[in-house]
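Section 4.2 – Deliverable D4.2 (structural model, holo form)

The reporting period included a commitment to supply a predicted holo structure for the target in complex with fe (ii) ion. Inputs used:
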Amino acid sequence: MATIVLGIGCAHAPQLHTPVGEWELHAQRDTKDAEPFWYKGERVKYAELLAQRGDQNLGEQMDVKICNERIAKSHEAIDRLSEIFADAQPDITIIFGNDQGEMFLDDIRPVFSIMGGEKFENMPRTDEQAKRLPPNIHIADEGHLPDDETKVFPGHPVLARYLVESAMNNDFDITYSHRQYRADPAHAHTSGMPHAYGFIYKQIFRNNPVPHVPIDINTFFPPNQPDASRCYAFGRMIGKAVRAWDNDARVAVIASGGLSHPVVDEDFDRDIIHAMESGDLKYLLSYREGYYQSGSSEIKSWIAMHGALQDSYLKCHLIDYQPLYRTPAGTGSSAAFMVWQL
Ligand SMILES: [Fe+2]
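Output (structure tokens):
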């Protein structure tokens, strides 16, 4: 039977690869954005957010020295996760991630998608694609896209297909692709994989050809987002299926993304981290869906991973957590890095 030998949770925020002096590019969008943010389960406009959080003195945490220290610590944590991954030498890795309008455009958004390609390509953007992006996103491309040429990563069609069959036998209707899905290049921002996967390829795999199965969850886009309980049940089913697989493979499971953003909510993040450490699932799932929206919806990938790791006897610990504030209203990205090991 296959064994799950490692779990990793890793933030993938563009802010991690944006020089602190350029965070203003993100901040400008935050303060001008017509769309309200999600904060503590409610929709709030920037001015309301600023009024609500004014007494937290978050502007003090925008000090360049503090921000640079937090970025340096985040990169140390990513290096540590990458070393742990290399030391574990898993045969196959499952990545729970979320497309953010990069691979699936408005024509289709699968709820749960298991990808069974022989290979997956991570590609630099074309100049045309780069032009379609806001500058604060393009500037962070080095975090998840190849520097010059396309990088190819092997998939694992046998495991992917087995997981699809297991899911279909366990009340999950799954979208399956037997090759890399690519959005219409005339409209897409990339022709490669979404940043949730590209970040792991570059920062954790370090561009090594690791056999893997990407599993995409539509955490982000209404109206067909699975709720947190459903993501947990889905992950649990995936974990059980892996452990029942008639194969002696050693499998790693990675969650890409999170925690709270683009409004940093340290209380919420600490609760999530504590619930993961203590295995307190009731608590983990007790938050209203309003907490799991926008960037913070990526916490659902962590919840799915947490489900997959149940009964695997792996122990969880936090490598680091850094709140990266870019406005006095507390917009920014939180960056959490956790590991589950024997
Ligand atoms: Fe993301």
